[in-house]
Design a protein that fits this description.
Elements: E1 2-4, E2 8-11, H1 24-53, H2 81-84, H3 92-113, H4 116-144, H5 159-171, E3 176-180, E4 189-191, H6 195-211, H7 214-234, E5 236-238, E6 245-247, H8 265-282, H9 291-303, H10 312-329
Antiparallel strand pairs: 1-2, 2-3, 3-4, 5-6
Helix pairs in contact: 1-3, 1-4, 3-5, 4-7, 5-6, 5-7, 6-7
GO biological process, one term: retrograde vesicle-mediated transport, Golgi to endoplasmic reticulum
Keywords: Membrane, Transmembrane, Transmembrane helix
Transmembrane segments: 22-43, 122-144, 217-234
Length: 330
């Protein structure tokens, strides 16, 4: 799909919009999300009516259901909310975005991964593991930092809003979504690779400026790192052409540093490199990538349109090796 006018051009890959027949997992997630969100609304409305009839002066927005919403202080009484919170929302804007995301993006991702089980795992299992981490960090933070609220619900459904854009960045690295033109220095191309950091910046500013919800801010960033870590190091995808499979995405363009703006890279690169060395070499939480893994992933990334990243040090070594080989031949 493409729309163009004098100052604006919007492009969407045709493959992203082929959702005439929604795949089974995407259909299941969308239906479950809509049903659970409606059930949550009914439960909240019922509780609100009870409170109002008893004379309580309470706003509807402050009413929650610990059965389906993730409330840190109630988590031991309702542990299943860890899973159910992946499938509910209370904000109209987020319900709209996530529904479109599940129907359009979920359908494309499921077809590209060629696995219904994988998208269910990414959305529900990784989402639930992330929610456990969020609750644990929130409860610990409440002991150390005054003002951290543990008696209000946390949004446990950021995997679709944050995790799917990371997948889009992985699958459409250089594809332009919006192009501003004929606007002088404001003329820019907004590509899929910028989508994750744009969403993270928007959500972060919203929490810092308007909502002041520290635990929710933790949830946002923990979800971001959890989704990337799974896709980078642990996801197993089998090729549709043969029985070959890949574990994670070792491509240079999918390094964590390339999900952040260029201006922050000099500061973040040594920090990320240090954490990677600790986790891979000392703690052995993750498996270090071998050269074969990197080459295979780079080949897949280039087929998706990713630009090849040239490492100056590595390129210099290759040039010296080639020079030495030529000298020996002479």
């Amino acid at each position: 799909m493409q729309y163009s006018c004098r100052y604006l051009e919007i492009s969407t890959p045709n493959s992203l919009l082929q959702f005439n027949k929604i795949p089974p997992a995407a259909a299941f997630l969308t239906l479950s999300y809509m049903v659970c969100t409606i059930v949550l609304f009914v439960l909240r409305r019922f509780e609100y009516s009870k409170l109002v009839s008893s004379g309580s002066d309470v706003a509807f927005d402050s009413v929650y259901s610990p059965i389906m919403q993730m409330v840190p202080s109630e988590i031991l009484n309702h542990p299943y909310s860890i899973v159910l919170s992946n499938l509910v929302d209370v904000n109209v804007w987020k319900i709209s975005i996530n529904t479109i995301n599940l129907v359009v993006g979920g359908s494309f991702i499921e077809r590209d991964w060629n696995s219904s089980a994988e998208i269910l795992k990414f959305t529900l299992l990784i989402g639930s593991v992330t929610n456990v981490i969020v609750v644990a960090v929130t409860l610990l933070s409440s002991l150390l930092i005054p003002g951290v609220k543990i008696d209000v619900p946390l949004d446990g459904n950021y995997t679709v809003l944050i995790g799917f854009p990371i997948v889009y960045k992985q699958l459409f690295p250089e594809t332009t979504i919006i192009r501003l033109k004929n606007l002088g220095f404001l003329s820019k191309n907004f590509r899929f690779k910028l989508l994750p950091i744009f969403i993270m910046s928007t959500l972060t500013v919203g929490q810092l400026v308007f909502f002041h919800h520290f635990a929710q801010l933790l949830s946002i960033w923990i979800t971001f790192f959890s989704c990337w870590i799974y896709l980078r190091f642990f996801q197993v995808l089998t090729s549709t052409q043969n029985s070959d499979y890949m574990v994670g995405d070792a491509s240079d363009t999918f390094q964590l540093i390339y999900l952040f703006p260029d201006i922050t890279k000099p500061l973040l690169r040594p920090i990320f490199d240090w954490i990677y060395n600790i986790c891979s070499n000392k703690l052995r939480i993750i498996r270090p990538f071998e050269s074969g893994d990197i080459d295979k992933s780079n080949s897949v990334a280039e087929q998706r349109g990713a630009k090849k990243i040239v490492n100056p040090v590595e390129e210099r070594r290759k040039q010296l090796a080639l020079q030495m080989l030529q000298e020996r031949m002479v």
